[in-house]
Amino acid sequence: MTERYPAMPPRNPSPPYKRIATEEAWLPPEIMDLYIKEIQEKNINEPGFNQLWGFFTGDSELARNHRRRIQSLGDDRIADMDGSGIDMQVLSLSSPGVQLFDPATATALAASANDQLAEGIAKHPDRYVGLAAFSPLDPDNAAKELERGVSKLGLRGGILNSHTLGTYLDDEKYWPVFEAAEALDVPIYLHPNTPSPQMIEPFLNRALDAAVYGFACETGLHALRLLVSGLFDRFPKLQIILGHCGEALPYWLYRVDFMHTRISSTDRHPNVRPLKRRAWDYLCDNFYYTSSGVGWAPPVKFVQDVVGVDRMLYAMDYPWQFVPEEVGALDAMDITEDAKKAFFEDNARKLFKIA
Ligand code: CA
Known about the structure:
Helices cover 46% and strands 9% of the residues. With 355 residues, it is of the alpha/beta class.
């Protein structure tokens, strides 16, 4: 029987691995200012954004600290990394990123954000790499911006903050960005957003809409919509990253696989068709998983066990869950030294092409 609450021993001061944190949020001041404006003017008809960012654009100390931290690519962020034993961050545009805005506005904001991110990385190339934002509802420009971000700016993949104004990307018309990712040999990080307007209502009045639970429901649903749509039959080398130990999907592996095999073998559902492989195969061969927000060994080890040691990566979820003690809890995991190095360092180097 394990302890009821995870032990948080001090972190290893000189571990035999670098710690690369792979789901670390950043937001440029221009987008922060737009969020503040949208909240103040009550322009946005998206309950999840209004509840979450209504709080984080407010006056509490927690909100002010998060706003300071998330906009920094300089001394504040580096000091926090040094103070928590993080050697490198894989930076991405914080949820919901540009996906709150109309497609054309989002396209322009994504380009500007990617330029600023690349400039910030260039000042600390040994501490940061980053992922490119794009405007999902502007499919051709999304693909072009991902290509520009990777080829011209040196970014290492794309960031998709789940639904965009209630739209999921399982519709083929949004697939050019996935086609580009596969061709460029870079992953797309499918990061949470608050649940879409269609699904959020029963979460809201009990404050279950955000990181406590809603993020996982929303993002796990999006991942499964992509899977059952046949996305990975079209782009078999495409790699999607899921945080938070896979938004619980590895735990559901057996049942998702069993039931999807059964459902897709009938003609009951016009939008569900048999796939070339089983759901189990896609979840093991087309997805990587990170530990963001989970400073607890059992689910990390579970993903390593059922998916593979080579597909489980470390992430902190800075600054949203900046709890330096969690680093010590994961340093102390009872796994082989090779598995621990794969988790903290080697898998990230390979996936994000970090020299
Ligand atoms: Ca996050």
